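Rotation project, supervised by the postdoc (A.L.). Task for the rotation student: set up a whole-complex structure prediction and record inputs and outputs verbatim in this book. Inputs entered:
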Amino acid sequence: MADEQDQGAAAPETTAEPAADRIIPRRDAMALRLVALAVTLVLAIGIAFVVVVLTGPPSVDELREQAGLDGKRELLIGVKDDQPGVAEYANGVWKGFDIQIAYMIAEDLGFRRDEIRFLSIESEDRARMQAVDSDRNRVGVDMVIASFSITADRKAMAGVRFSAPYLYTEQSVITLKGHSQVSTLEDLRGKPVCSLAASTSASAASRAGLVVSSRKKISECFDALNKGDFDAITTDAAILAGYKARYPDKYDHWDIGLDATEAWGVNVGENPALETLVNLSLYRSREDPHDNRWEEAFDSNFKTEEEINKPAPIAVDQQPAVKEPKVRQWPWERV
Amino acid sequence: MTDPVPAPTRRIQTNWLFAVLPAFPLVLLVLRLWYLSRQDLPTMLLLVQYVSPLGMISALFITLLWAVPAVVLVLRCLGGLLLISARDQSQATRSLLAVTALRMPDWVVVLAVVLGGITWQLRFLPVLVLLLISIMGVTAWQRHPDDRLVLRIVAFGVPVATAVVVLLWMMPGVVAAFRRGEIATALLLTMPPLLAIGLTGPVPVRYARLATHWPAVIAALIAPFVVGVVFLRAPILPTSALEITAGKSLDVLRGQVISVDDMETTILDREGQVHFVPNGNVHSRTICPETAQAPASAVEVRGWPVEDSVLEWVAPTKRTTTADPRCLGRPLNPG
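Outputs recorded:
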């Protein structure tokens, strides 16, 4: 734009008494500069607004405060207590995949193991987040990590807010040893089958024409199966695999070829800030190559059950993808 | 009929400006305390009594150091544009903006550019380049209006070459910003060097005053608010967490310690309440990190986070990764 013309070709609006050999600016160049100046000014106002007013996403501390975790002495987590490999309470100890995931998330939320309290929760109470303590009192929990599959219907329920999924599994069937082969749910058509109340498996079995009875706990289903009240139990493979692994000579675990994936998620109730924090924990666990907590949880619970359960599936051995939550973090905290 | 009252001369206006300017930092300091006290006068008076003025001035200085080059360079740039676009100098120098630019020594501009280069975040450095390039072009038009070669080099060649270099260097950051959906960051990194090419010469005289004088006036009106907001957000007292003996248990009190004397510790909590804790009851104390200061943008240019200045980038950083439980409101030992 420095290509300007000599004074001889002066534009009418230019200087009245210029220096004798002063270069006269070209009009089109000047007009372009005016446009550039206008764009710069508009951009400056826009950027100033973005920088000063829209200060970006909240920090982890702000989210903790919004989630009501600030100053909280104990984090209450609703879990299952009768699912070997998933979540089990035995001899005063909680163990299983869900328990390890709960420890991972709680740790990232700033709680130490002594500050986490697990409470047993039944399937139909997972949406309401009402667990039961050792004195059989109903207690509201902060989050539910209890083999809870994410579905559109559940998402639409009041008080349910799911995190990103932390495990992919599928529905399968378990029978007593010696039962005729079960290849699909239709093989059990008209037969009495047990499933968990308010579970996704119960509705799939009903649609296939099975006579489904529901129990509040999976251990009640196994008790009834052992007594011969049912021909089979159908629910998520990750749950059934634990029983098969514990009693390999008692049960047969069958792959029924359903293509639907059961994606387990954490229910955080009506707490969007907690959802973001849980997702951040899951995101870091998946994306950080130095963070093996999810893999360790999978290996120590499901991997050891694979051999005995073959060819029945258990779960996908990779953590589901998590979209990066929008959280303000220091550069060294990012993964 | 009386004669109309003459408008105050520029000298009088300047005198008033110099009288008002020193009051601005004072107003900022008082406002900061008022803001910290949550508009409670007794709390504010307590803060005034204990908060060190030197500490506050240091905070003001550190927080707002970036504003000095911004004011100097914008004045020089817009004033210079007005000067070279005007029909004659006597008319142009009627504007305080033009006079300020005309009388500004070159070393002030150089110092401002160096200060800006050190204290401005990376995302604003392209704006610094824009201001520098524009000032160089405008100065060339002021001092060598008859030298076509100088104008071609300084007002066209240098801006184009600089834009190419800056864009090439910034490209990874621009790509990352677009991928993350940070449009403002992407615009900040790309647009200024391009726009700089169009800001190195005169604009049509008819619009010169409108395009330079009035934006400067608007910027002067907005700047105190921007500066005020930035300063009000900056911490002036460290956030601490105190474990306090309450009977047999320990409570955690978080907030900003106003003073510690031989009798008690005075602390202002997050809700604006002042607590006087006898020193005998203070079990332990820790300092908590300010995570609200974590950068909003995750974009980096060749490993340099866009919200870091050169100073911040090269200086050693304290990397806090695990939060002290006391900063989360829980005692150090959960037992």
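Student's summary: The mean pLDDT of chain A is 84.
Supervisor addendum: DSSP finds nine helices and 14 strands in chain A.
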